[in-house]
Amino acid sequence: MEKGWIKIHRSILEKPIWTEATSEQKVILITLLLMANHKEKQWEWKGKKFTARPGQFLTSLPSLVQKCGKNSSVQKVRTALKRFEKYEFLTDESTPHNRLITLVNWGLYQGLDERATVLSTDEQQTTNRQLTVNKNVKNEKKSNRIREADDESPVFYQLASQLVEVIKMNHPGTKEPNLSKWSNDFRLMVEQDKRAVEQIIPLINWSGQHTFWHTVILSPSSIRRNWDCMVSQQKQERTPVKGQVLHIPKKPVNEISLDYAAGEEA
Question: What was the pLDDT predicted at 109?
């Protein structure tokens, strides 16, 4: 079991995933957040090595039901998972014995406050250094600092950091980019292009796993240029072709609750 605490951004109160959820689904949502790994974790089970990244965890439906407490059931948990996946809050990969849950925007929201503190400190130091400057010049520079702080706001900076992480997974030798410039590009994407952060995050992750787009999306500007094409292709891949027969693997009747920390069946 992970120790410590997690961060929950207040903006979730305004999202449909919360406002349109039942009380049971809200409990399940918070439980999922609490179960996610904060750091990368490795373990061995039946001779095989596994790795779970931050925001991921291995579980089973019975285990989730137990952790969610009274009034919870396998059907309610399964329905909630499908609903959260529809909102692109998580991905749910089933295996013969368990399921891997990945919280899509984990890295974005868990890093907000730390970055905000850094920006606040830097801003204060910059202001103190400029106390002796001519009033007009000071006002102009203050305006510039505000604009720069906007460009490096926690959300935009975290989007830039997430894109770097995805790119390096496919291109390990990639040099560290100018995160200030990338943050500004994401700001323009949101403010000028009217793209929602909730749209950008899944698209970054999707591009990193795509056989073609992972070679093209190497900066925020490339996302802006190819946005419409990427979104269209992403939707096509999610929609079955008319007449196509989908083969859905049968799930076992009993799922095994796996305690990955101990490497044993629970």
Answer: 62
